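Input structure tokens:
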């Protein structure tokens, strides 16, 4: 883990920590409509995927694949969306989102589609526990 790494306040506000992968801190977004993970490579001063060293690029791709497979298996997602936008939050972070043809934003992107719907406290704790178990964290 990089000791100079600090999680951007936007990510800390909008997500809850699920655990630590080999390279990334894994967050669950506090949006209850979608199983929505965010991977934040624990490297200081990173904004884009190509800013990572080649080995870290490989590691984060491996983590994206593992998270995608878990979301698909746990929630029977029809599509997994993966995105690294960073226009609003400059710290490198990768969204991995389970999508369904009957979700309220389908087939459009979820950003800004609807006001945020927070998890009830018990449901958030259960989802985090379920993800930790599935990812062996």
């Amino acid at each position: 883990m990089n000791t100079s790494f600090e999680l951007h306040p936007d990510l800390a506000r909008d997500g809850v920590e699920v655990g630590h992968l080999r390279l990334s801190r894994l967050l669950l977004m506090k949006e209850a409509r979608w199983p929505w993970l965010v991977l934040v490579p624990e490297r200081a001063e990173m904004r884009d995927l190509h800013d990572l060293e080649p080995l870290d690029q490989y590691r984060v791709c491996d983590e994206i694949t593992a998270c995608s497979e878990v979301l698909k298996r746990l929630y029977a997602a029809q599509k997994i969306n993966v995105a690294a936008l960073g226009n609003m939050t400059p710290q490198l972070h990768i969204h991995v989102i389970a999508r369904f043809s009957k979700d309220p934003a389908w087939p459009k992107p979820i950003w800004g589609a609807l006001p945020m719907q927070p998890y009830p406290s018990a449901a958030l704790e259960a989802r985090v526990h379920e993800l930790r178990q599935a990812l062996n964290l």
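The radius of gyration is 14 Å. The chain has a mean pLDDT of 95.
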